[in-house]
Amino acid sequence: MFKLLANKYLLGAAGLLLALAAIWGYGRYQHAQGWSERDTQAKLDLAARQTALYNEQVRLEHEKLAAEQRYQALKADTAARVADLDADAARLRQRLSAYSKHPAAGATSRTDDANPDWIGIVAACWSDYASLGKKAATYADRVNGLQAYVQSLMSAQR
């Protein structure tokens, strides 16, 4: 009888150990699944952040390229306008020099005649106007460059 009772306890202990081992194994499996799930989610989050960063860099490069193209177009337009002003100034200087060499240019002293003093004043004004156009073109280039730089900084902070 003792042997039978001992076998019962032995079988019960073996069953209990088997149940505990099964529970422990199931818990370990669940734990591993949780870590695997978190690891997978972390990898997906990292990939999403890297994709967003890449897209932002591409967008900034496109904006920079567009700003550079606008800058070059404005620079070319300004250069063309300055060249036109230079040509106009040269043409006016030629006319003024032709008028000042005309024999009737200094014949009278009325203020509306082609007096060499008035011709010099008009030529000086036109020269100042042409240099003002050149300075304006230079300042426009600088302002456009600064605006593009500030815009790139502002969009990089978003």
Overview of the structural elements:
The chain is mostly helical and 158 residues long. The chain has one domain. The protein is built from two helices and no strands. It is rod-shaped, with a radius of gyration of 44 Å. The model has no long low-confidence stretch (mean pLDDT 82). This is Lysis protein.
Keywords:
mainly alpha, Lysis protein, 158 residues
Structure in a nutshell:
The protein is mostly helical. It has helices spanning 2-101, 116-157. It has one domain.
Number of E strands: 0
Chain-averaged pLDDT: 82
How many domains? The number is 1
Topology order in helix (H) and strand (E) letters = HH
Straight-line distance between termini: 83 Å
Low-pLDDT runs of 5+ residues are none
What proportion of the residues is helical, as a percent range? over 70%
Structural class comes to: mainly alpha
Radius of gyration: 44 Å
* Quaternary organization: single chain
> Which sheet architecture does the biggest sheet show?
none
Shape: rod-shaped
> Helical segment tally?
2
DSSP strand (E) fraction?
under 5%
